[in-house]
Design brief:
Helix content: 40-55%
Order of helices and strands: HEHEHEHHHHHHH
Largest sheet: 3 strands, parallel
Number of helices: 10
Strand content: 5-15%
Low-confidence stretches: none
Structural class: mainly alpha
Strand order of the largest sheet: 1-2-3
Length: about 200
């Protein structure tokens, strides 16, 4: 109802089960999928992983609550463009969908820090080794940009801190995504966090 009432957004299809998502995406070709984590048969996490593994996938926003924070991290690692808490006001949900459709992530730095703080440290050492090895592929300037992304900085904030234009920041982020074979800046932020570079 919220999305259907917006003049800028159109609901092109719905799926009540995670196993129906792929077929719905094939049938309706949405720009953005709003994915609930809790669905019968196939949950939203598995459905997100399946979607993002396809060629030219739609953007995915995961709906969650804080008690499922470890699941959100899994979804973000799979390439989701961000997450919304289920109690998010309707106007913010609409703005988030529009932002993601325009290629921007919807991760609030404050919420992201809270989320990461709740995560289990299981596998932290292995993730840190992987992240450090990946970031070692970057140039010094790309690494600085990646760390700033990990700290939740916007392109404009990064440009100001590193004394470069916003266009240069975007170019660095594009190169980082290509070099590290990542889908979006959310995954860059997670990599910087795993490497222990965002505190």
């Amino acid at each position: 109802m919220v999305i259907g009432g917006s003049p800028d957004l159109t609901v092109v299809g719905e799926a009540g089960d995670g196993s129906e998502v792929a077929a719905a995406v094939d049938a309706y070709a949405p720009d953005v999928v709003l994915m609930d984590i809790r669905m019968p048969t196939l949950d939203g996490l598995a459905a997100t992983e399946q979607l993002r593994a396809r060629p030219d996938p739609p953007e995915v926003i995961v709906l969650t609550t804080f008690d499922a924070d470890e699941h959100v991290l899994r979804a973000l690692r799979a390439g989701a463009s961000g997450f919304l808490l289920k109690h998010t006001p309707p106007a913010e949900i609409l703005r988030a969908i529009s932002r993601v459709a325009a290629g921007e992530p919807i991760l609030s730095p404050t919420v992201t820090r809270q989320l990461i703080a709740h995560l289990s440290d299981t596998g932290a050492a292995a993730r840190q080794r992987h992240a450090t090895t990946a970031l070692d592929q970057l140039s010094g300037r790309e690494r600085e940009v990646a760390i700033a992304v990990g700290r939740g900085k916007s392109n404009a904030e990064i440009a100001g801190e590193l004394f470069m234009s916003v266009a240069t920041v975007k170019a660095h982020i594009s190169r980082i995504l290509t070099k590290l074979n990542l889908n979006n800046r959310t995954q860059v932020a997670l990599l910087a966090h795993d490497a222990g570079l965002t505190s």
